[in-house]
Design a protein that fits this description.
The complex is a heterodimer.
Chain A: E1 3-5, E2 9-13, E3 18-25, E4 31-37, E5 44-49, E6 53-57, E7 60-65, E8 70-75, E9 84-91, E10 99-100, E11 104-109
Parallel strand pairs in A: 2-11
Antiparallel strand pairs in A: 1-3, 3-8, 4-5, 4-9, 6-7, 7-8, 9-10, 9-11
Chain B: E1 5-7, E2 10-13, E3 19-24, E4 31-37, E5 44-50, E6 53-57, E7 64-68, E8 74-78, E9 87-94, E10 108-109, E11 113-117
Classes of the chains: A mainly beta, B mainly beta.
Chain lengths: 110, 118
């Protein structure tokens, strides 16, 4: 099985930078996803990391350290529309099924 | 671009009734996943299909069954509905199995079917 841990809630100011952490414990590791989910809507793909390091994609970046079982999602120049839940999902142990964490609810205020 | 289509978007049923949810994956996607998401909960994996065969099974109750048809659409059948089955049911599709070598396996989610059991 796997254990995925994320903070429940974070708040930040419009225009600021926020880092959302995800730690995991798995038997085997095949990759890690970050998804964004607005309330009542479908999760939308943000990033996929399988190798150590930072992947940058516009305002969003994702980092992975396999040895530490740790990832973070970095959001820059925050906008009000970034208020959403951010889900960390892990592929592990030969499974091709992403297992989601509880998600981090990000609230961006003016 | 075409996305994952789910129907119905909203469904209200009574306890012990049955319900069927449908999912039409993105064209050429051969893998379908079903997730259940309760209020304030993370999506819980139910079942998946790859090339019309069941590929993985998660926390799907015995009262539920699913299949993938020749046109790759999938249906989730739920019987003897219980109050606790009230949730948002997401279908997702991908090209190939997520995480396989050379495949980022990004899952594309549909907008979900909201089931309310009264």
């Amino acid at each position: 099985g796997q254990n995925i841990d994320q903070p429940t809630e974070m708040t930040a100011t419009e225009g600021a930078i926020v880092q959302i952490n995800c730690t995991y414990q798995t038997s085997g590791f095949n990759g890690l996803f970050w998804y964004q989910q607005h309330a009542g809507e479908a999760p939308t793909f943000l990033s996929y990391n399988v190798l150590d390091g930072l992947e940058e994609k516009g305002r969003f970046s994702s980092f992975l350290s396999r040895s530490k079982g740790y990832s973070y999602l970095l959001l820059k120049e925050l906008q009000m529309k970034d208020s959403a839940s951010y889900l960390c999902a892990v592929l592990s142990g030969g499974s091709y099924i992403p297992t989601f964490g509880r998600g981090t609810s990000l609230i961006v205020h003016p | 671009a075409a996305g994952v289509i789910q129907s119905p978007r909203h469904l209200i049923k009574e306890k012990r009734e049955t319900a069927t949810l449908k999912c039409y994956p993105i064209p050429r996607h051969d893998t379908v996943y079903w997730y259940q998401q309760g209020p304030g909960q993370d999506p819980q994996f139910l079942i998946s299909f790859y090339e019309k065969m069941q590929s993985d099974k998660g926390s799907i109750p015995d009262r539920f069954s699913a299949q993938q048809f020749s046109d790759y659409h999938s249906e989730l059948n739920m019987s003897s509905l219980e109050l606790g089955d009230s949730a948002l049911y997401f279908c997702a599709s991908s090209l190939g199995l997520s995480g396989r070598t050379g495949n980022t396996g990004e899952l594309f989610f549909g907008e979900g079917s909201r089931l309310t059991v009264l």
